[in-house]
Specification:
The chain is of the alpha/beta class. The chain is built from nine helices and six strands. The longest helix has 15 residues.
Length: about 180
């Protein structure tokens, strides 16, 4: 439990730190490609009776999804905490790719746990993670899918290795809520 308390304390301090916020905002704009463009859909608007329909184009972000937004903040926080090794879990691979991308940007060790069944289904994402320098660890327990990966990652988090932060799993609900 102390790790979670350390994480929360460091997050609250980072929120109040103008330099941290400036670096985060700069990375979102210049590295991720935010703000994501909005596209007005005139034909869909017309077909639905006039309610204006807009698409937020997060697929245009670096890595092709919204996952990188959280990863940037989480990894900046990990760096602030002195962490040098990031572990993450992924199912379809998007979170793993985003984590590996940001780790590569900052020269951090990245280990991504992924169900063996998902690895077989998501070969392009696995290729991208490895290309970015991540170690992809297959989880073969149970059905070898995301649920089993989360269990395995929770075990590693409990064991605790110095300098490691589990991206996404660390109950970062507070951080995500602040981003809304």
């Amino acid at each position: 439990m102390p790790f979670i308390l350390d994480l929360e304390r460091e997050y609250r301090a980072a929120k109040r730190d103008p330099a941290f916020q400036a670096e985060f905002d700069d990375l979102l704009e210049h590295y991720v490609g935010r703000p994501s463009p909005l596209y007005f859909a005139p034909r869909l608007t017309s077909a639905l009776g006039g309610a204006q329909i807009w698409f937020k184009r997060d697929e245009l972000n670096h890595t092709g999804a919204h996952k990188i937004n959280n990863c940037v903040g989480q990894i900046l926080l990990a760096i602030r905490m002195g962490k040098t090794r990031i572990i993450a879990e992924t199912g379809a691979g998007q979170h793993g790719v985003a984590t590996a991308t940001v780790c590569a940007r900052f020269g951090l060790t990245c280990v991504v746990y992924m169900g063996a069944a998902d690895i077989a289904r998501q070969a392009p994402s696995v290729f991208r993670m490895k290309l970015l320098g991540a170690e992809v660890v297959p989880v073969t327990a149970g059905a070898a899918t995301l649920k089993d990966v989360v269990t395995r990652l929770e075990e590693e988090t409990r064991i605790g290795k110095g300098g490691t932060l589990a991206a996404q799993l660390s109950r970062l609900d507070l951080i995500v809520l602040d981003e809304l």
